[in-house]
Design goal:
259 residues; 7 helices; 39% helix
Length: 259
């Protein structure tokens, strides 16, 4: 009695085992492997804390060659641009030049060497100027005549003298020799303006008097110059010169100067 019961229990256990073992595979389909449970990727805590650095992608051989070609082309193009020489700057035009007038001449006569030296220093302010004071034999003006010019002969001069006396003029003198022979003096004045004033009064009476300087032989001084700039000479011309002193000038040459 015990043995049959024990055999039934063993047979039941075998059937239950076979049903559990092959029952689920039959429902899922024959030939399909049994899926194992997915527990995910098991990572250590140390590995989770440190992020993995991605590995650089290695380009394919063809892609690497193709990538280097444009770079070489761009480098050669840049070298060509850099190799092109820059255009040279155009030369600046030279400044225009103007002609400067240079004068030569002389100043005189002057009565003393000291006066001549003073004017020489004034004219020497021009660069490259040559100025010298020199003594000459000449005539010094000692006064001014107001007179009736020389007449053709003595008879004519004496007849004119009588007319002047009849008009009420005094201090008359008939010059009988020298450069002023047969001229009639109306008066001798130290300054030219006084002689001209008297001559104008006599002219109003109907006569034709003139003013003539009275000269004597003397040593006089002249300032001889060359290479004087126009600007210096204009400033010099504005100065009042002594009586009977004249400035004689002429253009020596013209030089080109920068503006």
């Amino acid at each position: 009695m015990i043995r049959p019961l024990l055999g039934l229990l063993i047979a039941g256990n075998v059937v239950l085992f076979l049903w559990i073992q092959y029952g689920d595979s039959g429902r899922n389909g024959a030939g399909q492997p049994q899926r194992k449970p997915d527990f995910g990727e098991i990572r250590l805590l140390r590995e989770a804390e440190v992020p993995e650095s991605p590995m650089p992608e290695q380009p394919a051989p063809d892609q690497e060659v193709l990538a280097t070609v444009p770079q070489q082309q761009s480098s050669s193009a840049l070298e060509q641009v850099l190799a092109v020489p820059e255009p040279e700057p155009e030369p600046e035009p030279e400044p225009a030049t103007a002609a400067a007038t240079v004068y030569c001449g002389e100043l005189g006569p002057l009565r003393s060497r000291n006066m001549a030296e003073g004017y020489r220093r004034v004219l020497s302010r021009s660069e490259a100027a040559t100025v010298e004071a020199e003594a000459r034999s000449g005539q010094e003006i000692t006064g001014y005549w107001a007179m009736i010019p020389a007449l053709p002969d003595v008879a004519s001069a004496e007849a004119m003298l009588k007319k002047l006396q009849a008009a009420g003029l005094e201090d008359l003198w008939l010059i009988r020799d020298g450069e002023l022979e047969n001229a009639i003096s109306l008066g001798l004045y130290t300054e030219e303006r006084y002689a001209r004033r008297h001559a104008d009064n006599v002219r109003k009476m109907g006569f034709e008097p003139v003013v003539v300087p009275k000269k004597k032989k003397a040593r006089v001084y002249w300032v001889v110059f060359s290479g004087i700039d126009e600007a210096v000479l204009k400033e010099f011309e504005g100065k009042q010169l002594p009586a009977n002193t004249r400035l004689q000038k002429k253009v020596c040459k013209q030089t080109l100067t920068d503006n």
